[in-house]
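Appendix B. One record, verbatim.
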Amino acid sequence: MLRMALVTAALLAACQSSDVSRALGARCDKSAECADRCLLASDGYPGGFCTVVCDTSSDCPTSDSECVDREGGACLFTCTNDANCAFLGAGWVCRAAATREQPPQQVMICSGA
């Protein structure tokens, strides 16, 4: 019984990413609600998404985010499947996007459906 509980806890932890913050991932309607800027729901970011402007992934505030070539360079959470993006709410899926630093190179990030 204890073993099953530990396995379940590990699986749940693997399906969630970092906590959202004003720097990365919080819902927003305008950039004043974020540490840097807001990617708007009307532009394909369900509920709005706080992010930071970036040129490389080292500019991103968490180790589970990547700098992608969107909106002039934006940090988004990384993922391996749609379940990894569920913590952001409805409308988020895992899909490939070009990195800002090396545009032909792609990474899997949480993005609007």
